Amino acid sequence: MVEKKNSYETGFGSDALKNPQRIVFITKKTSAKVKGDAGRQLMSFPHLLLRESIAFQVMVIVLVGIALLWDAPLEQLANPLVTPNPAKAPWYFLGLQELLHYFPPLVAGIIIPTLVVVAFVVIPYFNVNVQGEPLWAGNRALRFKVFLSILVALVAFLAIFRAWTVLVPTVAVAGPLLFSSFLKPEGQPAWKFLRTRPVSWWVMTWFITVSVVLTLVGTFFRGPGWSWVWPWRGHGV
Amino acid sequence: MATSSLAQAFGRLRATQVWKSIFRRGPARTNRTRSLAVFGNLFLHALPVKVRDKSLRVRATYYLGSITFFLFVVLVITGILLMLYYHPAVPQAYRDMKDLGFVVSNGVFLRNLHRLAAQAMVVAVFWHMFHVFYRGGYRPPREFNWVVGVGLLLVTLFLSYTGYLLPWDQLAFWAITVGTNIISAMPILGRPVRFMLLGGNLVGENALLRFYVLHCVILPLIAIVLVGVHFWRIQKDGGLTVKETFQEENGRKEE
Ligand code: HEM
Asked: How many angstroms separate the CA atoms of A104 and B187, rounded?
């Protein structure tokens, strides 16, 4: 250790373990300038607080308005001897209940939900999702073959189980996906959005589309014995 | 000076020792006192002192995370009020629902508000998550906060689900019966887990009590801790994602 000259100066020594010295590397992609250059800043008080209060007030007004018009449901006292037909889970689980209609409980009730949660957790840890390259930016021909094979296998699987309410939204998302592979970079600017979507975008959009369709079907289109009903025909729930 | 008498009165209030003992700063007119207003306050110090104006734009968040949090606050308040009228017992729980409907002043409104906010919170939490996803808000350094978010999603769903049993009507009983039957499909662990959750093999009074404790104590506490971590991490991760930064870093800029 070199002796300190004054109380402000920390010591420098030749022992790298005791006195580590650092060199800063600025690589092209993460230069300090780009990171720090995120635009103008405003004081949270009052700019953010004001906006948050307005959001809160609007939310409470809407909530109170609806709560005055709509009534929370209450049925008969619970009776283990009288099973309603159909017995439905809360709406946010009706997608799962719809899957249970097609697949064995282990698959629909345990494996699929577990996989979905695991998939959510790992999203940020995969480089494909982080970089967000457009799906067709790489080897287009190869990727097209891969996606077509996955699609055909998936559709065949769903058809074998007759899982139509999963199959239809799957095809509805697969259509634009395959279509987007034929879009030329120099083509219509209107199609640019579709052409530049990364794979994570397609997978999430597929997941959301299927979930929304399953939830709507489970809520409105399923009646006694989980048979298909038309909500406007008055039977079912 | 033509200050209104209201402003004068407020000014005098601010000069009192009592006021000064609570708020140890002058009026928030300078950036220094405005900063103090945020980080000198236990409840506000979860917020950053400064925010990027890009993050303040409505389409940066649609306030979805905030609205999810506000709904949680409404649920805690209405939930505590509901607890004053509720017994987790069979069949008293159901009678309490009837009392809320016919005896308690504004009981219907209270129950409606709690039930509605619960549904809305499930919608809001999913919407917030999808919005964050499409904006790329999960990218490093925010990976861990995304995972905390997934935890919050699960806690929100569990909160809503355990609350569903409490009215002890047919809707509640059969929804929980259907749901917990699925757990038994799990190999080996299924039946023990279901037994532990229900306190028996059937949805009965033990299940009601367990769901009540989960709904009113355990899950809200977990939610509060996770929300705390979530908000704290937003600050530590450098505020919200600003879209342009990411694109510049990758050497391309859209729009
Ligand atoms: C009780 C549930 C939740 C609450 C109260 C909540 C609250 C918030 C708030 C207030 C923000 C600030 C920006 C905004 O309003 O969007 C935020 C950001 C964020 N949330 Fe949540 N959140 C919840 C659930 C989730 C879930 C389920 C996820 C994802 C799985 C998630 C991931 C994130 C991420 C990654 C950010 C940072 C976004 C960015 O940097 O652009 N949160 N959250």
From this structure: 13
